[in-house]
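Good morning,

Both structures are done.
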Amino acid sequence: MKLQLIRTLLFLFTYLFTTAVFAGKGNDALSLQKSDTIIIEFGNNSRIMFIIDDKADLETLKQYDLNAMLKDLSLKLEENSEDASVLSIEDASGTRYLKDTTIVIQSRDSQVTQNDEDEDRSNDSRRDRFDRFDRLSRDFDDDRRRRRFWPRTRQSFNVELGTNNYLEDGKFPDENNRQYAVRPYGSWYVGLNTTYKTNVAGPLFIEWGAGVDWYNFKFQEDDTRVVDTDSLVAFIQEPNQQLDPVKSKLTAAYITAKFVPMLDFSYDSRKSRLWNYHGSGFRIGVGGYAGLRISSHSKFVFKEDGDRKKDRERDNFFMNNLRYGLRVQMGFRGIDMFVNYDVSELFSEGKGPELNAFTLGFTL
């Protein structure tokens, strides 16, 4: 049964080979690796390789019976043990087969062995052919592995950590002693993202994806209260002097999508078809992002009569539902950092201070 299957496959792919050559049409089962070499891959682990020294010999093949060649090959498969890894059929006289043409069938990962059917043939010439077959076969396998493990687009999951702040008319609010000035330490940014990297051409890649981001703004003054009135949001000092303020902050969560073209200056097409974050050179990209607010809340922590307490209020605080901005990211070897700057204002127009948030962080 196994021998019959081999015969059928050999006949089928030899037919495809002759059809492709004489009709001038390509076929997915055929791959032209070199100018004088054609590989036919079939089954799970086998292939047929044609090594032709002169392209003009392709026309000569029309005069010979390839079916008879396959028949003789089948007889040799019957005569040899199943462990044989290389079989050769040759016709030095040229009356039945093309002179100096050798058909080689080899299973993947098997060892090449010499066939001593024709002791008059030059061993050096045969060794050269087998060496060339091994070299081209390895190149063929390397290309298949590269296509399998280095697709044009790859997906990954990453975590972004950073610190938040914002600008008012190009200045930090603490320069004007604003109540809503924040501390960089404690104003943490956390992002959980699914990221895709797509190779466009050469060193140009597109990084795109989506995730959930949390903006935390910890106010510099621990006694800051966020008050949401009917017409605006206000930042006031805690009026109850009996309380011992511990900390105060405003938090917002967004679903965010990003799109960043990247240049990797260490890109080498000979090594891979996909840019790697942890490459050996410098990489930089500039793009954009947009986010939809899904929640927001304020938290005021204080001590009263020695007991630690906290007030948490969930509201929109007139924060814009949509935020969008520019993103710059760069890296060298295993280190990557990014800067996000919100072009949109944090609060709705006329409902709060005119603040543009930004984030400086690292990608893990």
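Second structure follows.
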Amino acid sequence: MSDYTGALSITKRRSKQSPRGLTYADSGVDIDAGDRVVPMIKTLLRKTHGPRVIGQHGAFAGMFRLDYNEKLFKRNYKDPVLVACTDGVGTKVKLAAQLGIHITVGIDCVAMNVNDLIVQGAEPLFFLDYLGLHKQVPEETTMLIEGVAKGCEIAGCALLGGECAEMPDVYAEGDFDIAGFAVGVVELKRAIDPMRVEVGDVVIGLASDGIHSNGYSLVRKIVKKAKLKLDRVYPEIGEETLGEILLTPTRIYVQPILKLLRKYRVKKVVSGMAHITGGGLPGNLNRALTDTLDARINFSAWDIPPLFHFLQQKGGVETDEMLRVFNMGIGYVLIVRPTFANSIITQLNNSGEKATILGEIVKGTGQVQLI
């Protein structure tokens, strides 16, 4: 394993000892290749660092300043609550490995974490990643980390470091995995609480950028069953190849959501939120509800992107199964007070999102009704 925030010079020297004896390289692990990654990614990490990141590059762990002087920073938390989550990209990495495209899944990894964080009303602070590799190829590893750094830039959080584990006995040749860990902070009185959701609240959906990072085992099964070509352009779904479309990164909703929440520092007009991942709308929006409320969603309120119709047709997948597996074009949901709904939609659209009223909150048992 190589911690790319850590110092590797000692292990590098050791690898050159006993030239006639058995070496780590003989077992399939190239320490020198890991060493070459460190200087290649140093600039990528620094681009994500603000004044709250302290300490030197190459330490055994990253340091982030939370309790800080208000004269130095714009904001200060009086009653801070740390929020943490971890997630990966799933079998989307199989497509990335197959196509030799590595940067996009790095963005996915950040998105899957920070989009979960903001559901609690939290500001993402820093991020760390884990790469499991069959073989250390410095150029490919750098592309993965470049994607992670890009995702952190979009989300406005610092990439403090990560771990690269070269394990040829665990991962098949050409395979890799990526996972991440994010930490954020929210003022206690501003944390999102499902108990605030009320009958009559409006449900607003934000458009996804495609499949995002869930359901790719089914996607790959459809591709195989229908004998679809990843390098072919299918005009009914776009001008890019199918592979490029399937590897479109997960949309990061951090900045528009935080901008909206900061505008209402006194009034709590956003009563609930949900990141639509595996399980679709029915399996994620229900997590923002108490057991006395339902979310009644109008299935015709938004246009389902052609990619989902394409996959459903090619795979012969039932609509209920599509709704249970995929986001179907809605990547994030807010539940808001009705008198603020139109204003919030306008603000989100002005921030570059495509916001749509999906339905409303009604009495129920904690379910999502699709009508």
